[in-house]
Request: fold
Amino acid sequence: MIERLARVPWGPLVMVAAFFVPALGSRFYTFVATDVVIMGLFAVSLNLLIGYTGLVSFGHAAYFGIGAYTTGILMKKLGVPFVLAFPAAGLGAGLAALVFGFFCVRLTKIYFAMLTLAFAQIVWAICFKWNDVTGGEQGMPEIPYPALDWMQRLPFFGDFRASDHFYLVTVVLVALCFWVLRRIVGSPFGRLLTTIRENPERAEFIGVSVRRYELIAFVIAGIFAGLAGGLFGIFNRGVFPDFAYWTKSSEVLIMTLLGGMGSFWGPAVGALVLLVLNQQITSYTEYWPFVLGTVLIVILFAFPGGIVGALAAGVTRLRMRHA
Amino acid sequence: MLEVRNVRKAFDGFQAVGGVTLGVARGQIAAIIGPNGAGKTTFFNLVTGHLRPDAGVVILNGRDITGLAPHDVCRLGMGRSFQRTNIFPRLTVFENVQAAFISHRGRGLSFFARVEGLYRDETYAVLESVGLQDKAGEVSGFLSHGNQKQLELGIALASEPELLLLDEPTAGMSATETRETIRLIERITRDRGLTLLFTEHDMEVVFSIAQRISVLHQGRLIAEGAPAEVRSDPEVRRVYLGERAR
Reply:
């Protein structure tokens, strides 16, 4: 039974299911689903650093923000079509990650974390002050939706709203990103990243150039965070400096911990749970941060592997009992 | 094979290694002995690039490797094990050794290949020669101390070294384990035609397999030669053998 469940291709299945969210006909559901999908990508990109390479970044929002501004500026101010503006988000964020990462990987542990935070705050400050380009404190509202008129000619999906169409595009793009990330994690490169997480000193002496691998991982994580940011700006109908603020970095860090950094999908599950909980609980009480804090404490002490880690442990226990 | 000339290293004014010159010929089994704190591990770290010597040269196969980073030294044909067990604890035994193959054979930067079956045969061959083939799927951090030491040797072998440096390979082992490990090391060295340099504080171990012994004391070499010569050297008897007999 459990073996059979494990063999189900959950990834494609979830994606297909995600396609039918707009069919529920609720603007709100589509809104939450888009948020979850995009933040899921953001969190999974961070986990390439935390869960696989053992690098804790406190400034991952910098690349999310840079991606959002890149796509936003290109589409709104320069009229560049989405097909170019979206990959540009990854490019811009990746370049920034290359420059910042060059310095960050020279440090370890808490010093690494603080430097990533410092760079992120610099990015935030630039976004906040550079009025001519970023719109400064006011941000950049009214980012146009991509031209998706062609989708109206599709059967079944044609009648949906523009936000639904953008959601469908988001699902496809994020699924593609997940596929690429999954391949990277399961590649020889991914395996060597785990040796760095486990024991950097030993990794050096099987011939791994630790800094170089860390930098590559940092850039890849930055690229995908940037792509997530590019989508988020459009979804949010505007790009604002707080996309790059430290609270955004901590939000994605919480998602990763909540879902579990020991598995590939953990952080995405974390994004789902956090965002849905947030939506639900804020409609009952104004003490959302209090609830969040409690949930986090329980997770950290009782389930250090996060939600997915706890589930996996449960499955293993069931399997042992059946064997 | 390996030539070390007059290397020194001081930490905050404390001379840990003070001008050591030492050579190991191809195919030789050489040992460095000395009491705790004699500078054995520091000396190893100087050779493998973990530390940069204040002065002196390290030459591997005729090539000056002084000051190179450890990953470069590793690529030039030097394998190493560490005194405190040094593995990748949350990876399986198979993955530990496989990772070393991936790195050594330069496949580390392939981002899209599937890793699962990569270097499977090579990895199993190494596991078999260190006697861990039955534990390939186990998480290495849960192995016994002796098994972890065997695995470390396996990781070092996967880098396909010509020169193997083992830092106290039997540290923390029981008498039986020690004997088995030494036999294993000796066999692997012979089978693969390796050159071996190891440190040890257990005298019995050293005299049983080393062809050449160097005695380190307070950061300096005080004697060097075949086991019999070293054993009868009065200075060695005084600082080292005497100390242990007391």
Notes: The interface with chain A takes residues 48, 50, 69-71, 74-75, 80, 82, 86-91, 95, 98-100, 102-104, 107-116, 118, 155, 158-159 of chain B (CB under 8 Å). The mean pLDDT of chain B is 88.
